[in-house]
Every structure is written in structure tokens, then in C-alpha cells.
Amino acid sequence: MTNETGDLKTTASTEGGLVETLRWRDQALELIDQRRLPGALEYVRCESAQAVAEAIRNMVVRGAPAIGCTAAYGVAVEALRLQAESPGSFAEQLHLGVKVLEASRPTAVNLFWALRRMQAVWASLGQRPPTQVAERLLSEAHAIKEEDIAVNRAMGDRGAALLPDEGVVLTHCNAGALATAGHGTALGVIRSAVDMGKRISVVADETRPFLQGARLTAWEMVQEGIPVTLITDNMAGHLMQQGEIQAVLVGTDRVAANGDVANKIGTYMVAVLAHRHGIPFYVACPLSTIDREMATGADIPIEERPLAEVVGFDHCQWAAEGAAIRNPAFDVTPAELVTGLVTEKGVVRNPTRERIAALFDS
Ligand code: MRU
Known about the structure:
It is a single chain. Strand 5, helix 7 and strand 6 form a beta-alpha-beta unit. The longest helix has 31 residues. This protein has two domains: 151 residues, Four Helix Bundle (Hemerythrin (Met), subunit A); 207 residues, Translation initiation factor eif-2b, domain 2 (Rossmann fold, 3-Layer(aba) Sandwich). It has twelve helices and 17 strands. It is globular. The protein is of the alpha/beta class. 5-S-methyl-1-O-phosphono-5-thio-D-ribulose binds next to helix 3 and strand 10.
């Protein structure tokens, strides 16, 4: 991975939204280094599956749809890297590359969804020479990226209708352009509502410990002139009690077949509070994030991340030494707390196994 430092204002290019989270340049994948935002806008260049997997694991890129798109490019870039090999060696090494990508992060199902799609395309090519396989895999990765933007726009249109003409929407983590190929899921709905003329302002939970809300969501909203107020995670209940929040809208990393929602740690707390205060709790969820093989949320693997993320940030450590530490990165909100799943095919109100199945069959 190599870094290319750019000026924040001049290099933020627009593609289907505010920023180009991932881009294909000179036969390599370039990713905004989200660990450095909002202080710097740097692209990290990846030229192998190994480098792409590292970028996913280390949170250079994060957010379920963005992870899926990135993994697809990871397969493509590896195929290009190996295309001069003999067919046998090409196949053997590309399989290993897919395995490395699969092991990068466990919770976001989009990673596995995208890898399965790339493998299906590869399988459909039979004994074609490696150069042709690599070319076809790259075009599939481009297609996955373009589809992601289109899906987010469709979700935006459907979800915007759920929001009031004027009001405050609380969000948790970052489900914006940075978490996708463009436009965003939860923030995409807010963008679409604002484009429709609705007067929406955002309350962004800081989102401990990785600060996706403070660093990424607040940055995206400020860049676009959508009013945003940043709070620490423990302030959400107070604002709800004061009548200051009209809706909650979050993204998701995996939705089980029964509608249970895995999302960034702290989401469950927000959902319980929203229920207590009669505030609608919406989840923006592309179909690629619904895992129909996962019966309930109890089966969703919850990533445990490095303990260093809890005791400090960057080079600053504030926690006392000696205490045991936990860092589960996601939690599961039971379906009964979800007012609606916003998908590109429509809104599933009060999601159940049957309603989700019906959506796929429609
Ligand atoms: O650990 P992260 O930053 O990858 O977690 C991201 C989230 O939890 C998002 O809310 C989720 O992926 C939806 S992104 C559209």
C-alpha cells in the first residue's frame, strides 16, 4: 500500500455523492484512508489482494457496502497481478487471494456477497486464459461499484418519503458516501430528503471507539451544508427525552432472515431508547446486506477489534492501565425494535421473516 497525499479541498472528487471513496487508477485500486479523515484526504494505493485485505482489516476503508466493493476490486487486482502466470498457478494463487480477502473482517456480509459474485463470474469463464479472466473480473468489480451507487440512490428515494418535511434525524456511525461507493445508505436517505426540499438536520452520535460519527459523518454533512450537531453517544437518550429527535436512521452490516439488525456497537442502545420514546427507528439496508442464510441475529459473527481502540486514539492513551478491556465492534438490534428496513425495492415495515422473504420474491 502506498500513500498519495492530496489537499482536502481540491482532491475531494464527486462521484455519485460527496467523495470518491474508492477509485480505479492506473491498474490499481485507490482508497481514501478513512483513518486520516477529517484531518487529511489521502488515497492509499492497493495492487494485490493482500494489500486490499490489509486496508479492510485496518479500517482504511470501512462500512459494509464499501467493504464489498473493495473486496471485489481486491479479486480483480489480484487477477491482474497474476495474469502472466500459467493457468494452474493463476487459479491456485487467485483462490488464495480470495481466502485472504474473506478473512479480513467478519461481520459485514457484503464482503462475502461480493466475493461470491466474483467467484461465480470466474467460474462461468471455464478455461479462458488468465488475461481474459482478469479483464472480466475487473469489469465485474466496476459493475458492483456502479450498482452500489444506483442502489443507494433508489434507497434514498424510498426512504426520504418516510422522513418528516422538517425535523431532526439521529444517526449512529457513518453510513454515508464514505461507507459505500457513493451517496450512502442512511446518509443517502437524508441527502435525498434534502434534495426533495425537506428541512432535515442531523444529530450525529460520536460513535466510540473509532469515532466514525465525529470524524466521518460530521465531515460529510459539513462538506454538503446539511446542518449537523455532534453529540457523544451517551447524550442520545437526553435529546430524545427532550423531544429533540423525530427519527433515527442507521445503516447495517448484516440483517438476518428474521429482520434482526447487526450494526455498529451502540446501535442497540439507540434502538431501545427510540422505542422508549416512540421515535421511529429506520435501517437503510441494500438487499446485498440481508443474509437469508442467517436465521437470526444471534448467529451473526461479531468482530472483536484491537483493545488499543478503546484505551485511546491515535497516539493519545487516556485509560488507566491494568483494567480488562473489551471491544466488540457491532451489536444486534432485535427486529421488534425496527420500524422499517429501507431497501432499494421498498420499505419493509416491522420486519419479519415472512415480510423479508416476500421482498425477495416480489
Ligand atoms: O466498523 P465499520 O466502520 O465498518 O462499521 C460500519 C457500520 O457499522 C455502518 O453503520 C454499516 O456498515 C452500514 S454502512 C452503509
